[in-house]
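Could you help me review a protein record that somebody else here produced? My question to you is simply how this chain folds and whether the tokens agree. Thanks in advance; the entry in question is below:
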Amino acid sequence: MNLDRDAKTTSMKGKWLLLSAALFSAQAVFAQFHFGVKGGVNLSKVEGQSFKEGFNTGYHLGGFAEIGLGKKFGIQPEVLFNQYQSRYDTSFRQVYSNAFSDATSGNVKLNYLSIPILLNYKLGSVFSLQAGPQFGVLINKDENLLQNGSNAFKRGDFSLLGGAQIALSKLRFSGRYAVGLNNINDIGTTSKWKNQAIQLSVGFTL
């Protein structure tokens, strides 16, 4: 009888230890996982023939997740609505006459659904370096500027991001530079167009 009772007691202790370990592990994982929302300013341009050099103001809105991978590293996936704006000059009509109808000089507004996937590296308790790819899908553009808008810009945009983030309690302040790696020109000329943008953001973890 005593042996059976001891075996049951040992079994119960083992189960409680396993349950405690599982709860502790779950708590540790949950402590390194956060959701949040963010928004901010894009200063963007298109690098290419007949586009003006200066940056133009747009915006971004969306959500993010923070997934801790130990004390130093983490992954930060995001889903953003990104508005990029650029300006073209007076030579646009001559260079791209098959794509633009009334091009003198003006704005090109491109709206993307973007998915950045960033690797975070912590330097201290509040400051992190960030780097990673960003995948974008063009969802609409300024149709009034284009004769054949569906073919002027490729739907896919692939960029490389680099920047930094400051975390103060639930607030997140970040700045990044986005360099487009693929040619977004889809009108059949040899000229290459690539997005570039400075992204300044404020976020809040929930």
